[in-house]
Amino acid sequence: MVKKAPNPIDKHVGSRVRMRRMMVGMSQEKLGEHLGITFQQIQKYEKGTNRIGASRLQQISIVLSVPVAFFFEGAPSANPEADGEGFAEGHSPAYVSDFLATSDGLALTRNFMRISDAKVRRRIVDLVSAIAGEELEAAPAPMAVALRSI
């Protein structure tokens, strides 16, 4: 029996559940208690392994204090041939949502937003950009990697 890969929208919705749960400081166990399900089921939802039904998503939105639409923000297009139309129109790339769904991304964002001085925040952005640029410059070009392996 071949395992079916999770649907990209199910994975996205699950990652948004995880991100919001972490934003409010709630454990998987606690969310499961509120919903009357196990933390293992929450894990499956968050990974996109199990699809979240409409009524369950409504319950989750109430517990996490967000509208249901929150879970679909930035979702991949349901129809990639739709020429830019669909769920993803005008939203950030998936890597932004993926990063924000991590504990590091959430902590970085939360702490960054606590900095009230706009100049300090700008300097932090410049610093991170410089560090990222240095890492990019230090990384070997794909062609160099390919040539080294010959």
TrEMBL record:
Write the signal peptide boundaries: none
PROSITE patterns noted in UniProt: HTH_CROC1
One term of GO molecular function: DNA binding
* Sequence ranges assigned to domain HTH cro/C1-type in this UniProt record: 17-71
- Which Gene3D superfamilies does the record cross-reference, listed alphabetically? lambda repressor-like DNA-binding domains (1.10.260.40)
Its protein name is: Putative transcriptional regulator
Q: Which organism is it from?
A: Azorhizobium caulinodans (strain ATCC 43989 / DSM 5975 / JCM 20966 / LMG 6465 / NBRC 14845 / NCIMB 13405 / ORS 571)
What gene name is listed for this protein? praR
